[in-house]
Sequence to fold (287 residues):
Amino acid sequence: MMISPALRDRINEVACANVDGFRPLSGGCVGEVYRGRTDRGQQVVVKVDVSDEPSLHIEGSMLEYLATRSELPVPKVIASAADVLIMEYVEHDGRSGPDVEVEAADALASLHGVSADHYGFEEDTLIGGLHLPNPRRDDWPRFFAEYRLLDMGRRCLEVGHLATPTMRRLEAVATDIDELIPRPQPPSLIHGDIWGGNVLTHDGHLAALIDPAVYYADPEIELAFISLFHTFGERFYARYGEHRPIDDGFFDYRKDLYNLFPLLVHVRLFSGTYVGQLQSTLRRLGY
Fold:
């Protein structure tokens, strides 16, 4: 895929270096992704967003936050702007193995040990290119109900991906939220989007986690997300539990409760079979 001279000039302007040898990479919910090399010989990944309201600077900010506040392996941000994000290239070959689950559990347990005096974040962030509101709140159940379930549910409704009766079922969940989450855990920093495509592996080890959607949350929402897309399995949860015991009730029902949110994100983005998966999850929860 050829990059226009104007785009090449913009990338070089943001990088404060000459970048060449562009090769398209797969992935990226927003814009295009390339691998390139600077005139200093450094391998880089370049994301480009040519939409009317580019927001790659938010991804750059999240990666830098994780790099400075935690030990989570993430790509180093070289330069960022709203329309261009330039990161170091992390060598990866897709080869997995038992060590990956253990290393991921160690890394995420450590990340979840980073706390704050509030849920939410210092700014709104993104998940899959969608706006993620993060007002600072002391009440996790209400935060989850208002700014995850109902907010994303309304957006699904507005674009016609969700029927009104299903929205009413979500509203019933939100009404009962204090009973469904009686003892939330203290605020923990989470990656927020741990599915297989965001896990880079190399030679059977964890290389990096990419495309975060960070905020401070009950860390169970991260564990639930991992179960939804089968990112990691039993070995991961056993190892994680050695660092941070998983409370009773998580696997019985809170896992399904928290997975309503990523299912809503996928309903908003893709509709399709995710609608049925959302409805069946609501039924398992009794709604």
Residues 250-270 form the longest helix (21 residues). The radius of gyration is 19 Å. The first strand starts at residue 19 and ends at 24. Residues 5-88 form a domain with the Phosphorylase Kinase; domain 1 fold (CATH 3.30.200.20).
